[in-house]
């Protein structure tokens, strides 16, 4: 299925994802009457990325600005309907898009009518609800104050009123004294401040009585439940009344009239209760009518919403097209994969037929020097791995894609740091749950963390499988070793070796067939042995992956016909660290006790000295001298030839170009001059700049070869940390609690062990190993060959537009 085109395409492996799809710049000339339908069909197809041919125009100056405004207004109405459905706890039912759907003009009219009707219903319901809440409050005031008046006709109230009357008469004895009253409800939290302000404002010339209301009431203004106090204020004089009214308004106290006569009070209570029951029935009818409207909307909401989103996207795309001088055709330019040519032409043909246009669309491929976008065809398994690479940078057009190797190397390097087959099984079970329920979960709206885990479920699946594999190699199940593949190769020499030290062990059986012998776990030499093993493994894996990166740089250079730096880079890396890897393998095979640190250090400091007991094979001294010489030679080899080769290629490319303009006519001379000036500006060769750039690149590679190899030691460090943490949790929590022979302590210990394992080892350690594996791929592996300076193919596709907006 690999469709990679371009020069040198045969030099790379023919496999999916290795090279991006071959792209072409196309021009489509569409008659105005079929443009809308053509763009709609292309949106369904999703294989054409339109270029904006109206960059110089603002959004308001473009041809279809009015249509986009209409679609925006319809989208606003749909958002209003969605809010109303959410308030009424009515969910939109997903229905399939029917062929006999409304046209956009009919939908606009229908949405307008529904909005007017729903707005009127809501306004009436709000008005009725406000009146209902006021009547409920009024009823509460009447009943509460009636109870107060019935129960509190004592001396205190009479004395307070008498004092109030006496104060008024002392102030103006000739004045006829007449008391007034105000009653209502005040929020309970403001009651004390309300009473204090009233007392200060009237200088004590008032009588206030408050009674708490047993149940919270709905405030008519805010529509929220609130605890309130019923109050009655007795005062004298208009000035006092005006002050009290202002204070009531400031404190949000709702005032209601309270008749003085007991008979009128009872009559008013009956009238208010009757009105409340009538209003309640009216409100229920109004809400039922509103719900019926919203249910009718909900059955078609998704279809309408999809139609409006598509229509808006179509007009946005049409605004990117150029209108020809006759205003009868629209000209579009864009990128498409080469394999999609026939599909695009079919879509344009169908649009011509369905729109009954007399003129068909014209499709033609344009020649261009512009770099095409990058397009990889991925599936649900490979897409997450490709996103890991894309997060670093989008591949340049048809550049070798690290995503192919990431599918295996990323989870494997993670597992090297996370090797425990017990923990691997836990992650596997969690991942299988996501995979088994993927259809249901894909249709739900997940939170950010869950959505991230669901999107990378196949990455986590591979990570868990490799963790089980490396865990079996390390022979660790929650840090506990098992003799899964046979008996240990070692046994105690005598009963005194129960201290588990290798000095007291003798080899009695063949070597343990797979992974680490379980006898090493718990022995005194466990840490030195596993340290040595994992450190050497880290170096071997690092050198292998860096060599793969350099080999991929060779395929890139061959494909793009660039100057090669492949050979000196390969020589330099393997003269030093490739040789170290070879020494590690020889030491393992021979069982030698040579000190590799000493060998590598004195290879540089004293290359001519005898190796003595550190010699691993005959002729090692001569080999080291040759490798050191090759490493030194490879540095200028990386630095000097490439700039000279680029200069020679530039001179050959521009040789004799100055004579071409003499053979042209006057009109074409101008064009050629402009082209020549442009090409001169873009392709002027500065040897000093190229040399400095290559110098920086050489220094970066030489220093990076050392630092990158050291960086792979994180595999050893994190693997050791994971193993030791797992061992601590097992021995110091689970085993320790088991030793107490107490069921309560054992349960507490098991709970602590469970939470520590999940929280630290299965969450934090997983995240840590993931980030370190990410770093190794981005920095140590990809920088050997991957430029990542391309841009992603973003076709006009309804599916992605609707998904993004959701």
TrEMBL record:
One of its GO terms (molecular function) is ATPase binding. This is V-type proton ATPase subunit a. GO terms for biological process: vacuolar acidification. It holds the Pfam family V_ATPase_I. It is a multi-pass membrane protein. Its main location: membrane. The keyword Coiled coil applies. The lineage of its organism: Eukaryota, Viridiplantae, Streptophyta, Embryophyta, Tracheophyta. InterPro entries: V-ATPase_116kDa_su, V-type_ATPase_116kDa_su_euka. GO terms for cellular component: vacuolar proton-transporting V-type ATPase, V0 domain. It is found in: Membrane. The chain crosses the membrane at residues 412-436, 457-474, 537-555, 567-586, 622-640, 743-764. Belongs to the V-ATPase 116 kDa subunit family.
